[in-house]
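>> received
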Amino acid sequence: MSLEYKLNNHSTPFKGEIFRKLIHYSSAAISIGYIFLEKNIVLSVLVILIAFMLLFELTKYRSKYIHTLYMKYFKDMLREHEYDRKKLRINGATWVILSAIFCIILFPKNIAITGMLMLSFADSTSALLGRLYGKKQYAPNRSYVGTISFFATGTVIMLFAPKYFGSLKEYLICLTALIATTVVDSMSPPVDDNLTIPVTCCVVLYIMYIILYPGIIFQ
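>> returned
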């Protein structure tokens, strides 16, 4: 099997893809930290972090020297649109932090944690297994193996993510959110999937809780 694959006419070494996904896996520290820490503490850390990341993104595009260093050390981990200096676009890691801030601000704690875990584990695992074994594709950059891996990993997350009631009805809510998130991921939406995956999961969870547990008070 070739150790390279084409994405937007750019060859990404498999080793670089592994490092890229390891960063995604490590983002689970946000979810785990949020389990034990107060909302304002987690948000404060993330806001400071995203400020530095966005400043670096801007500097990277304005400074040829910084961009050259960036490409020297990180090119193998990047998608083509992440290093194209013609358009100012943020990279995947920055999207991860932005989506975490978005979910934590807008959604109840357990729901936000579940959505972020879906991004950290389901998305990363599906990408790696799809890359290794996903020879049969049903859409560009979308394979049957990748989608099945996403759903399987998401199932484990939904089983062990924090719950409000632990009832069968709550697990049905989780299953509905899992199916919806898997479908959205399989459609390759134009918005970065580091945002669409956790947000889709959180939105569906929130709506389903409201419908099936009317009057619920989220903590």
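>> Residues 109-133 form the longest helix (25 residues).
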